[in-house]
Amino acid sequence: MARAAAHAALDRNRLGAFLTSVALRLCIDFYRDIDRRSRLLQRAALAETPGTTEEDVCDEDFGRWLLGQVQHLRGREQEVILARAKGISTAEFARMHNISVKAAEAAFTRGRARLKNVCAKALEGCAR
Q1: Distance CA 116, CA 83 (A)
Q2: Exposure pattern of 64-93 as b/e (b: 16+ CB <10 Å)?
Q3: Is 0.85 topped by the overall pTM?
């Protein structure tokens, strides 16, 4: 507030109104921050609750099945997909394997496309 009041371009005739506006905005920012933190904590609490719905169980089962299908991919495609599943970025994967980021991204794209085709074929088999 003191810094705002000491501003060189401040109109001294409007100092009271200016400081009132500054105080109100600081209060608004303070309560917005509290609200934002509260929402983040609620999201974190929801994220920590274990999924027990039927959909969650199916998602986990599908994830295990899909991870098994990764074993059928070719060398670099398999490596980059497994690295991404572990949370390693394609750029980090490229650095670790001394290849270009473009090559790592291409291998990831090819591997993902092959897995998509495997999923499509499996769904076709289920529909019959």
Answers
A1: 18
A2: eeeeeebeebeebbbbbbbbbeeeeebeeb
A3: no
Six token digits for residue 85: 């599943």
Asked whether 92 and 104 are in contact (CB, 8 A), the reply is no
Whole-angstrom distance, CA of residue 120 vs CA of residue 126: 10
Other Cβ atoms within 10 Å of 94 Cβ, number = 20
Q: Is the pLDDT of residue 12 over 60?
A: yes
Which residue type is seen at 70? V
- Multiple choice CATH, 54-127, 1.10.10.10, 3.40.50.2300, 3.40.50.720, 3.40.50.1000: 1.10.10.10
pLDDT tens digit string along 15-68? 788 888 888 888 898 888 888 888 888 877 766 666 567 777 788 888 888 888
